[in-house]
Amino acid sequence: MTHLKIKKRLAQDKLMLWTVCLLATLTAVPLIAILGEVFFRGYDQLTWSFFTEPTPTAYKAMKAIEAGEPIPGGIANGIIGTMIMLGMAVVFAVPIGILCGAFLAENDKNRFAKTVSFLTDLLQGTPSVIIGIITYIWVVVPMKGYSAIAGSIALFIMMLPLIIRSTEETLKILPASLKEAGLALGGNKARVMLKVQLPAAFGGIFTGVLLAISRVIGETAPLMFTALGCSLIRISIDKPISAVPLLIWEFFNDPNLQDLIWGASLFLLLFVLSLNILAKYFAKKWNQ
Amino acid sequence: MNDKIYKAILFVTALIMPIVCGGIVYALVTDAYEAFEHFGFFKFLTSSEWSYTEGAEQYGALPFITGTLMTTLLALIFCIPFSLPVALFVGEYFKGTKIAAVLSTVTDLLAGIPSIIYGLWGFYTLRPIIMALNISPQGSGILTASLVLAIMIVPYAASLSTEFIKMVPNDLKEGAYSLGATRAEVIRKIIFPVAGSGIFSSYILAIGRALGETMTVTMLIGNTNNIPDSITSTGNSMASIIANQFGEADGLRLSSLIAIGLILFLITAVINMIGKMIIKRARIS
User: Fold this and answer.
1) For B14-18, which contacts have Cβ atoms below 8 Å and span 24 or more sequence positions?
2) pTM, two decimal places
3) Within a domain: residue B27?
4) Is position B263 within any domain?
5) Nearest-CA distance from A239 to chain B in Å?
6) A159 part of a folded domain
7) With an 8 Å Cβ cutoff, is A265 touching chain B?
């Protein structure tokens, strides 16, 4: 009787182990399926001209399809647009985010800091489509038009909480003795922060910035109502501009351009995933 | 630079958070006001009409609130049987081993894939499968959107659950083993009760993510403005109706869309707040 009971318990234990292993391994299936599909359908589109030419018009694409040729043109307008908007967002989000993070790390007890910390969580959890609406109301309406500026402000708002959090957390796990040693040597707080704490926290903050970039670079919803998209290569910041995810959305909706989807997606995916892996590598290196 | 100036600079920069968040609430409320005033707040929430024939415009948020709740709940149900095993695999069974590191890299990469690419995959791979299985004729709908949404939130739920499972004190587990418990029993009787509220909070935060997910849902939900009558029918979520119609809307319709945005913002904020509160408590205890 007890023998049987023990057998049953051991069997249950084994069953649990195998179920966990099976189901956990199954989560790799979508990753492999997505990577595989995007890679195999997109890799032959990644030619030199794909990166140097702007998106073709629907008419040109239709002509090419009728003639049985590959669609001319590429995603240069999107790549340049993404670079411009992301560049502007990073330039503002990194210093402001680091200063806010430093503020939170230095005053973790007072009420204002607690409010700021709470609001950072709130902003981080806000759906990206709402950030798009907000930037539309704040920037697009007063400026009377879609623009790269509006798009970069949307990206800036999305990056800010991520950079604030990573800075704060990295500064908080630095040993207190580091700061105290700096202060004991006669440095004031600002000097210790600039010369001791921030350099020591560089790895963590850098990882946070990379992750923030990889998070916002694939965002489509906040750019739809702010940057809008444009089929020309543009470098002016007060006019509508394209971005790689916006182009994918455009290709998805235009039957004539559908052949370009996979090349653009492969490019975006490779970029985002290498940023992720790079960030993980830096985090590991910095932790040692 | 003396300490006072330094403190002042930090303080002034930190002011950006209240300004941005206050600005968000202010802008949403003022621009949604027209819709609430025209239809009445509760009428707007409970009306299922969405028609923009000029002169007889009728807007209500109920179909989209229902669509969002249905996709989110279904996604959560599909997500649990995968994220919980991942958390047990990484945080308990193979804690600290290479294979666990591989699996957590896999989930990290899943979290990194942009939502528009999930949408493409759902549209070109999953949708034909759903059609071939005769689950729904058009392939897109609540079910398709929820399935992809579930894959997207697995990493979030799994990584936080893992953290809490890892935190269960060893002496508790060893105590149970020394009494003859099997590993499955330790997981059921020790790990789940101890890490339970932490695991629970990870699902709350996963819900918070799923609620506002836009592109994937827009590409897969079918985009019809009716209250979905089953999980295979088409619909629209709050985020997807905004993504679909915001660009072309003006006047009362624009205000109604912003009102839906405000409701979505409030729901996500409340869900995230509850999640964070439970996490804080779980971390302390």
Assistant:
1) B14/A99, B14/A100, B14/A103, B14/A104, B14/A112, B14/A113, B14/A116, B16/A96, B16/A100, B16/A160, B17/A100, B17/A115, B17/A116, B17/A119, B17/A120, B17/A123, B17/A164, B18/A115, B18/A116, B18/A119
2) 0.95
3) no
4) yes
5) 16
6) yes
7) yes
**Per-residue pLDDT at B112 exceeds 80:** yes
**Structural domain boundaries enclosing B94:** 58-284
| Longest Cα–Cα distance in chain B | 76
Query: According to the model, what pLDDT value does residue A63 have?
Result: 85
Residue A4's CB: how many other CB atoms inside 10 A? 8
* Residue partners of A114: CB distance under 8 A and separation at least 6: none
Chain A interface includes B236 (CB < 8 A): no
- Total number of domains in chain B: 1
What secondary structure does DSSP assign to B73-84, as a single string? HHHHHHHHHHHH
pLDDT of residue B126: 95
Burial class (CB in 10 A: 0-12, 13-18, 19+), A186: exposed
Which residues form the domain of A94? Answer: 76-287
Please indicate, yes or no, if residue B22 is contained in any of the structural domains.
no
CATH number for the domain that contains residue B273 = 1.10.3720.10
Supply the ipTM of this predicted assembly.
0.94
Decide: B198 and B282 in contact? Cβ < 8 Å.
yes
Smallest CA–CA distance from A213 into chain B, residue: B112
Which residues in chain B have Cβ-Cβ distances shorter than 8 Å to A224? 243, 246-247
- Give chain B's length: 285
Nearest Cα to Cα of residue A120 among A92, A159, A83: A159
Q: How far, CA to CA in Å, does B39 sit from each of B47, B198, B238?
A: 9, 41, 18
Question: Are the CB atoms for A133 and B242 separated by under 8 Å?
Answer: yes
Q: What is the nearest CA distance from B28 to chain A, expressed in angstroms?
A: 7
Are A217 and A81 spatial neighbours (Cβ–Cβ below 8 Å)? no
- Give domain status of residue B5, yes or no: no
In a domain, A10, yes or no: no
The label of the residue with tokens 């946070």 reads A208
| Disruptive mutation site among A40, A110, A126, A273 for chain B (greatest number of B CBs within 10 Å) | A126
The string of pLDDT tens digits covering residues A188-209 is 888 899 899 999 999 999 999 9
Overall number of domains in chain A: 1
Q: What is chain A's length? A: 288
In a domain, A274, yes or no: yes
Tell whether A93 is covered by a domain: yes
Chain A: closest CA distance from residue B218 (Å): 10
CA distance A64 to A67: 5
* Among candidate residues A191, A99, A106, the one with its CA nearest the CA of residue B9: A99
CATH code, domain carrying A85: 1.10.3720.10
User: Over the stretch B9-59, which tens digit does the pLDDT of each residue have?
Assistant: 999 999 999 999 999 999 999 999 999 999 999 999 999 989 888 778 899
